[in-house]
Amino acid sequence: MTYDTALDAALQRLHDEGRYRTFIDIERKKGHFPHAVWTRKDGSTKDITVWCGNDYLGMGQHPVVLEAMHEAIDATGAGSGGTRNISGTTVYHKRLEAEIADLHGKEAALIFTSAYIANDATLSTLPKLFPGLIIYSDALNHASMIEGVRRNGGAKRIFRHNDVAHLRELLEADDPAAPKLIAFESIYSMDGDFGPIEAICDLADEFNALTYIDEVHAVGMYGPRGAGVAERDGLMHRIDIINATMAKAFGVMGGYIAASAKMVDAVRSYAPGFIFTTSIPPAVAAGCTASIAFLKTAAGQELRDKQQLHARILKMRLKGLGMPIIDHGSHIVPVHVGNPVHCKMLSDMLLEDHGVYVQPINFPTVPRGTERLRFTPSPVHDPKEIDALVKAMDKLWSHCALNRAEMSA
After folding, report:
1. DSSP-derived secondary structure letter, 121
2. What percentage of the chain has pLDDT greater than the value 90?
3. CA 93, CA 194: separation in Å to the nearest integer?
4. What span, in angstroms and rounded, lies between the C-alpha atoms of 183 and 214?
5. pLDDT of 365 higher than 90
6. Where are the alpha helices (H) located in 208-339, listed in sequence order?
7. Paired strand residues for 209
8. Label partner for 215 (CA 20 to 30 A): which of 7, 35, 184, 222?
9. Residue 130: is it exposed, middle or buried by C-beta count within 10 angstroms (0-12/13-18/19+)?
10. How far apart are the first and last CA of the chain?
């Protein structure tokens, strides 16, 4: 077999299974979110509404963010100039880490190029810091967490999703003297369900385990200052390491961990994924700092409230049509399709015929048979856009003769 033949076979498998992924070429329009212009392969264009973006609150166009980025790029230029250890630490990076630490009520924070890298680098480094560490990982943790746990070379235990009883069984079966860490998420983005934070913290206290939470889909969105679900529930002080992103509700890019000063110092000193990576540009750091600071305020809470209202309206209207909504009460609105070909077809027709852009979510992102469309309403989706989406879904669901029986949460 030639190399090209092997590549052809690998790509054809994806086509045959209906899960070959394509890029949609769009240009978002500042001041007009969630509208964008889609450029087709033939070069023609179409005005569309983006319904699957991760810029949950529209902060990617907010004047305070853009002003901070303009000021920083005018002052410092484009890139950071190096890794954090070699000329790549600026006043903008230090300000951002201080802002993050304050957000989460922690002593320190450490920024990475993405939350994926933050998870991977941190979780793969912890066994170097705690020899013999056993990591207990939720079965539906994000790929970045799975990769970090897999690569660390230490012992790992996988507990059934949100199953605290199973987690207890695993903890009880291991050496009480062994160092332990429980890794889980506050919101699981594929179903939009919440992790049992308090119950996991109780187990961690009982078994002397560290806690590691991924708040990627929750920061900016929950809590009186937007620190996430742990803040909303008054539990941040019980979490040892908080991971999150600046590429979703904060509207820019980058990831981070927040923890004790000693924990951050140790990860900073030992994690190859941090040590050998060029730091984010100062302008990006400045934009992130401005966004986080804004979302801590009452104005940020207004955006959160409006986003939650739009999510509730969309869920209510789709449920009223018998759509199989997966509803756990979060801001994420997954609509179950259950077939990769139908999922892709619905996505294509929504885009081409109705100007609605929602990306199909297929295996391996979700298990086979649970393929879905995942909508992310925002404060900038107005009632007319919600109405247009609902009518398009109603029409296409009938056209494809799909099941309208409502799913249980």
Report:
1. H
2. 87
3. 31
4. 8
5. no
6. 229-232, 261-270, 272-275, 282-295, 298-320
7. 180
8. 35
9. middle
10. 47
Q: Is 315 among the residues known to form the active site?
A: no
| The dihedral sign for the CA sequence 150, 104, 331, 67 | negative
Q: Nearest 10 degrees: CA dihedral of 41, 45, 46, 49? A: 80
* Residue 13: its H or E element: helix 3-16
Asked if 178 and 132 count as a contact pair (C-beta separation under 8 A), the reply is yes
Q: Out of 106, 180, 248, 315, which one is annotated catalytic?
A: 248
Reply yes or no: is the peptide bond before residue 131 cis, omega within 30 of 0: no
C-alpha distances (whole Å) from 364 to each of 188, 204, 206, 368 are 15, 31, 35, 8
Q: Which helix (H) or strand (E) holds 45?
A: strand 45-50
Burial label, 140 (beta-carbon count in 10 A; 0-12, 13-18, 19+): buried
Count of Cβ atoms closer than 10 Å to residue 47 Cβ: 11
E-only strand ranges, 204-254 = 209-214, 241-245
Our CA angle for 22, 26, 28, nearest 5°, is 145
**pLDDT tens-digit readout, 282-339:** 999 999 999 999 999 999 999 999 999 999 999 999 999 999 998 999 999 999 998 8
- What confidence score (pLDDT) does residue 398 get? 84
**The model's pTM:** 0.94
Is residue 216 within 8 Å of 115, Cβ to Cβ? yes
In the three-class reduction of DSSP (H, G, I as helix; E, B as strand; rest coil), residue 43 is classed as coil
Q: Which helix (H) or strand (E) holds 14?
A: helix 3-16
Give the tens place of pLDDT for each residue, 163-209: 999 999 999 999 999 999 999 999 998 888 999 999 999 999 999 99
Please spell the DSSP secondary structure of 48-62, one letter per residue. Answer: EEESS-S-TT-GGG-
Strand order in the sheet with 255-259: 108-112, 255-259, 241-245, 209-214, 180-185, 134-138, 155-159
Tokens of 5: 């033949």
Rg (CA), the chain: 22
User: Hey, how many other C-beta atoms are within 10 angstroms of the C-beta on 211?
Assistant: 22
Lookup: tokens for 265: 């110092």
Q: How far apart are CA 191 and CA 168, in angstroms?
A: 24
